[in-house]
Every structure is written in C-alpha cells, then in structure tokens.
Write a structure and sequence with these properties.
Blueprint (H helix, E strand, L loop, with lengths): L2 H5 L3 H7 L4 E3 L24 E8 L5 E11 L4 E8 L8 E9 L4 E8 L4 E9 L2 E5 L9
Antiparallel strand pairs: 1-2, 2-3, 3-4, 4-5, 5-6, 6-7, 7-8
C-alpha cells in the first residue's frame, strides 16, 4: 500500500489517526437513537455532507482533498467518495461504504481506492470521538 492509501483510510479513520487534519463540513449533528446493546443507528450521520480536508503524512508532506458523504439504499448505507487534490500526484480516488450490522450491533466499513487499497474497518466510540479502525495486526508475537 502506498503512502496515500495508508494516509487516507477514510474520513473517520483519518480523524482518529491524523490529529493535524483540518476540515470543514455541515454543523448540527442529528440526535442519536441507541440500538439495544449496541451503537446508535445514526452514529455517523454527522459525517454526511461535503468535506474539504487536509492532513500531513508520516513524511511531513501536506495533502488535501474533497470528500462527499451521502446516505444510499434507503438511508441504510453511508457512501464516501474521496478525491485527492491534483497537487498531490498521483491523485488518490477512493470510496467506502459503511453499514450498520444488525446481527452484531456495530457499524462496519469497507474502503477501496484506485491505488489498490482495500481496508475493512469496524466502528469504535471513545467518548465523543467516532471512528472506524482496523483490527490490530500481530506479527512475531508482538
């Protein structure tokens, strides 16, 4: 996976991974309705809208892009469409779909991009932070 794919997992994952990122988006998140023993069905409704984002990667290079987040399939799936800025070639184009798993009471996301990236994520909540994270990889017992 190249540095762009590793830096841009998804908007939510970026928020968790890269604290120097700035973004602008719609305000006034909707009220949440909790599911039985699980995450709210509208946990990521705040994310819906058009986002201008910028971040600094691990090599201190600055990047930017646009993210369009919409609800599809009767409002049950969140679709993300990311376009990296032309000033950061190669231009990264990415897409994610997020869905609430009723059998597991958790949000799941799949990210793919034009540079061969494929990432499976699960939602995590830490106080008021909402993010998608990957499973911890253990190598050589570490």
């Amino acid at each position: 996976m190249n540095i762009y794919a590793s830096a841009i997992i998804s908007m939510a994952a970026i928020c968790a991974i890269i604290p120097a990122m700035t973004m602008t988006a719609p305000q006034n998140p909707p009220a949440q309705v909790a599911t039985p023993k699980g995450q709210p069905l509208d946990l990521f409704d705040f994310w819906v809208g058009d986002w201008d984002i910028s971040w600094t990667d691990a090599q201190s290079h600055k990047h930017s892009g646009n993210n369009r987040i919409v609800k599809i399939l009767d409002g049950k799936v969140i679709e993300e469409n990311f376009t990296g800025a032309a000033t950061s070639p190669p231009i990264l184009l990415g897409k994610s779909v997020s869905v609430f798993s009723t059998s597991q009471n958790v949000w799941r996301q799949t990210w793919v991009d034009n540079q061969g990236g494929y990432i499976s994520l699960t939602a995590q909540v830490d106080g008021d932070k909402r993010m998608f994270v990957t499973a911890r990889v253990v190598r050589n017992g570490q």
